[in-house]
Design goal:
Blueprint lengths: L3 E2 L5 E8 L2 H8 L1 H21 L3 E5 L4 E5 L2 H21 L7 E8 L2 E3 L2 E3 L1 H12 L5 E4 H7 L6 E9 L6 E8 L3
Helix pairs in contact: 1-2, 2-3, 3-5
Length: 176
C-alpha cells in the first residue's frame, strides 16, 4: 500500500455534520429521519459536484470533502447552507441544522481517503462550529480571499483537541 500526496499543492478539506441528528432520530423515528437524511445527502452531493469537490467519505450524518482551491470549498459550504435553508422553509417541522469546518494544507491520500494534520484540524474546527456556522482556519480565509456576497468574522482563538496552542477561527457570513 502506497500513501502519496493527494495532489500538487494545497488541498482544502471541508467537514459537515448535522447537529442533533441522533436526537432527531429518537423523536422522529427511523423512517422520517432516514427521509430527512436522504434529502440532506442529495443537497450536499449536488453542491459538491457543482463546485468541483471530491467526496472523500460519508460518515453517517456528515461528509468529508476535498477541494483543489479554498474558494471553491468556501463557496460550496455557503451553497450547502443556502440549500439547507431552502429545505427548512419547505419542511419546517424537521429542520436540518448543519455545522461545517474547513482547513487547508498538504495531505496524504491512500485510495479514497485523505490523511494528515490538515485533515484532523478541519475535523476539529467543524466540532467547534455551532449549528448553521461555517468555521475556517486563518489559512483558508487567506487562500479564499475576499469575494462578493460574503465576509469573514473572527471568532477568536481556540484550543483544538490534539493540537498545541490556539488557532484563530473565522466564520463566513453569507446572509444579506
Amino acid at each position: 500500500m502506497t500513501i502519496r500526496p493527494a495532489q500538487e499543492g494545497t488541498t482544502t478539506i471541508l467537514f459537515t455534520d448535522i447537529q442533533g441528528f441522533t436526537k432527531m432520530t429518537s423523536f422522529a423515528g427511523d423512517q422520517e429521519a432516514f427521509d430527512v437524511l436522504k434529502r440532506h445527502n442529495q443537497i450536499v452531493r449536488t453542491q459538491i459536484q457543482d463546485h468541483g469537490g471530491f467526496e472523500v467519505k460519508y460518515q453517517g450524518d456528515g461528509f468529508m470533502v476535498a477541494f483543489t482551491t479554498a474558494r471553491r470549498a468556501v463557496l460550496c459550504a455557503i451553497d450547502i447552507q443556502r440549500k439547507i435553508a431552502e429545505h427548512n422553509r419547505e419542511y419546517p417541522v424537521r429542520p436540518l441544522i448543519l455545522r461545517m469546518g474547513l482547513n487547508a494544507g498538504d495531505v496524504l491520500r491512500d485510495e479514497q481517503d485523505f490523511f494528515g494534520a490538515a485533515v484532523n484540524l478541519a475535523a476539529r474546527i467543524a466540532e467547534k462550529a455551532n449549528g448553521g456556522q461555517i468555521l475556517m482556519s486563518d489559512l483558508v480565509k487567506g487562500l479564499a480571499g475576499p469575494y462578493p456576497g460574503f465576509r469573514y468574522v473572527s471568532r477568536g482563538n481556540h484550543r483544538l483537541k490534539g493540537f498545541p496552542g490556539r488557532y484563530k477561527l473565522y466564520e463566513v457570513i453569507w446572509r444579506a
